[in-house]
Amino acid sequence: MIIESYAKYLIKNAREYGTSDIHVLPHQDIYGIYFRLNGRMERQYTISVDEGKRIISYFKYLANLDVGERRRPQSGSLLYEYTTDEFQDLRLSTITNYRGQETLVIRLLEIQREMSLTSSSFLPQELNTMQQLIEYKSGLILFSGPVNSGKTTTMYQLVKNRMKKSKMQVISIEDPVEIKEDNFLQIQVNEKAGNTYEESLKASLRHHPDIIIVGEIRDEETARMVLRGALTGHLIMASIHAKNAEGVIARMGELGISLEMLQQTVIAIVFQKLIPIYCELCEESCQVYCTHYPITNKRAALYDLLPSKEFQKMTMADIRKFKIERSRNFNQLLKKVLIYGFISEEIYAQYYIP
Ligand SMILES: [Zn+2]
Questions:
Q1: What distance lies between CA 308 and its chain's CA centroid?
Q2: Which CATH code is given to the segment(s) 3-108?
Q3: What is the 278 CA–ligand 1 centroid distance (Å)?
Q4: For domain 124-351, which architecture applies?
Q5: CA 347 – ligand 1 centroid, Å
Q6: Are strands 40-48 and 266-276 parallel, antiparallel or unpaired?
Q7: Is residue 185 classed as helix, strand or coil in its secondary structure?
Q8: pLDDT tens per residue, range 34-58
Q9: Residue of 166, 173, 218 whose CA lies nearest to 195
Q10: Read out DSSP for 63-95?
Q11: C-alpha 329 to ligand 1 mean position (Å)
């Protein structure tokens, strides 16, 4: 195997399939190469242990990582020329298991292609409401959902739609910046260089932008700063890790933000998942090779929207017990799209939040 051309072949294929990540994983006596397709890991190729090691070393070398170091986890990035004059932005990270076998994950940035929110969403109602909420001059909109559920795409598209009406200053703070957008001032967090979310946010607030997009609230400092920004006349959209819309409130609580504080600032909480669409040709979720739905439209977003007015009535006890009387929560909407025939029974069971 010529490693250089095999690497090109891998990246080219991953791009064609719309893969967000390539995993080079060691097994007992082989290496498996997996693509993350439509959120699922699928094994594409099997190579020998020797080939696996060589491909990992090759990418480490390209990204200026320490090729000889196989124990400690390493991470890096590179702009990879996969065909003449065509480049792909890659993020690499390596980790070694207890047997001393190295694993490589290659993330392909910017692979999420532009798409309109309407064509990639199951139900229009939540989307229309979000588009109205984005007109607010100040306040906080929190987005949540699993990794790769399209949160950044949603935030970007909502803001871009609003910008069609009037010119605004928009600052986004992300780690890493995944979608390049010339109309935003995009700031990349770099913790190692001391460029944290908190610091970037502080600097951004001094610019008095109309809208700030925060890639992830992951510590108390950032949470506090986001709240302060929302209280001082900025519209802030931020994503935070939680397993459903109500879980966002609990998560903010863990980060030191009380329910009362949220009730004063939050305009809405959005929880979203990208769900595989049922395809008549495949007679199940549309498969990678099927042409019925294009590769970027094999999944659509289901939004659960918790607007502040519903949210004002809640107490912490309601939230803990998830006893909120809502007519359009995630599971109810999931049922609705099942009844409409947009998804299969199997997918319904898989995406239902217990
Ligand atoms: Zn299909």
A1: 24
A2: 3.30.450.90
A3: 8
A4: 3-Layer(aba) Sandwich (3.40)
A5: 15
A6: unpaired
A7: strand
A8: 998 877 888 999 999 999 999 999 9
A9: 173
A10: TT--TT--SS-EEEEEEEEEETTEEEEEEEEEE
A11: 28
How far, in Å, from the CA of 13 to the mean position of ligand 1?
19
Distance 35 CA to ligand 1 centre (A): 19
**354: CA distance to ligand 1 center in Å?**
28
Q: Are 158 and 131 a contacting pair, CB within 8 Å?
A: yes
pLDDT at 176: 85
What is the CA(299)–ligand 1 centre distance, in A? Answer: 11
Ordered DSSP codes for 238-303 = EE---SSHHHHHHHHHHTT--HHHHHHHEEEEEEEEEEEPEETTTTEEPPTT-SSS-GGGSEEEEE
What is the structure's pLDDT at 323? 56
CA of residue 291 to ligand 1 center, whole Å: 6
The answer to whether 225 touches 252, Cβ cutoff 8 Å, is no
Which residue carries 């195997």 as its tokens? 1
CA distance 66 to 53: 14
pLDDT at 40: 80
Where residue 324 falls (left for φ over 0; alpha for ψ -120 to 50; beta otherwise) is beta
- Residue 280 Cα to ligand 1 midpoint, Å, equals 7
Residue 212 pairs in a beta bridge with 171, 236
Residue segments in the chain with a per-residue pLDDT below the cut of 70: 110-116, 322-325
How many CB atoms sit inside 10 A of residue 113's CB? 12
What's the 73 CA to ligand 1 centre distance in angstroms? 39
Enter the tokens of residue 175.
């780690």
Which has the closest alpha carbon to 303: 242, 245, 243, 246?
245
The C-alpha angle 233, 235, 239, rounded to 5 degrees, equals: 135
Q: 293 CA distance to ligand 1 centroid (A)?
A: 6
- DSSP conformation letters of 18-71: T-SEEEEEE-SSEEEEEEEETTEEEEEEEEEHHHHHHHHHHHHHHTT--TT--S
Domain boundaries, the chain: 3-108, 124-351
